[in-house]
Design goal:
The chain is mostly helical and 106 residues long. It has one domain. It is built from 3 helices and no strands. Helix 1 packs across helix 3. The longest helix has 76 residues. The N and C termini lie far apart (107 Å).
Length: 106
Amino acid sequence: MEEKLKAVISAAELSGQEFGAFLRREGLHEAQLQQWRDALQAALGAANPKKRTRASAEAKRIKQLERELRRKDKALAEVTALLVLKKKLEAFWEAKEGGTQATSDE
């Protein structure tokens, strides 16, 4: 297997006449080398799903946290607006009560 890997790597660096000379020197056929290359890519591709799964799980977690953050930001904005409204109403009622008391004292 190691020899096949070395052959695939060595052949990948060559082009044209150099590639043909390499095949003749090693006693290989291009189709044989292509099969080895495909097998290597399949083996490497089989190792990647774990990384994709972890990345996918991390991406899902990030999206979930972003949704939660947006929800909490909206709730905070709503509470802030309610507090501002409460203060304005209190100020309004204090001003109104203060104004009616001043006119009733006269």
